[in-house]
């Protein structure tokens, strides 16, 4: 948009300058211009509780999830083992027993 860096805390692109600081209006995070360099933590995928997820982790589904193209539902409390993180809207690739391979959003899981 305006050439300003995205927020390192939440990834919002709606940052603005306030003196010598950058400010995120969505999460209220403030950082200096020197700290505006991208880091590995900005890429970190977090679960619903804010815990950082890694490849191979086990997660638990926290909400009933409808399976697209099917009448079945992934129930709350379903454990998903050996996840793989990918780029995109659905940032978790996994296999769920009884459903097969699918992609999940990290906001609907918590680290087990």
TrEMBL record:
Give the source's domain of life in one word: Bacteria
Pfam families the record matches: YjdM, Zn_Ribbon_YjdM
Protein YjdM N-terminal domain mapped to chain residues: 4-32
List residues of the Protein YjdM C-terminal domain. 45-112
Which protein family is it in? Belongs to the YjdM family.
Q: What is this protein called?
A: Alkylphosphonate utilization protein
The lineage, from the top, is:
Bacteria, Pseudomonadati, Pseudomonadota, Betaproteobacteria, Neisseriales
């Amino acid at each position: 948009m305006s050439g300003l860096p995205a927020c390192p805390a939440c990834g919002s692109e709606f940052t603005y300058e306030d003196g010598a600081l950058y400010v995120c209006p969505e999460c209220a995070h403030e950082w200096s211009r020197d700290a505006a360099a991208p880091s590995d933590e900005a890429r970190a995928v977090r679960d619903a509780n804010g815990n950082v997820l890694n490849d191979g982790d086990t997660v638990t589904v926290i909400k009933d999830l409808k399976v697209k193209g099917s009448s079945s539902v992934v129930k709350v409390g379903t454990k998903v083992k050996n996840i793989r993180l990918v780029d995109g809207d659905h940032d978790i690739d996994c296999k769920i027993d009884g459903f097969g391979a699918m992609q999940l959003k990290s906001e609907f899981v918590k680290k087990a």
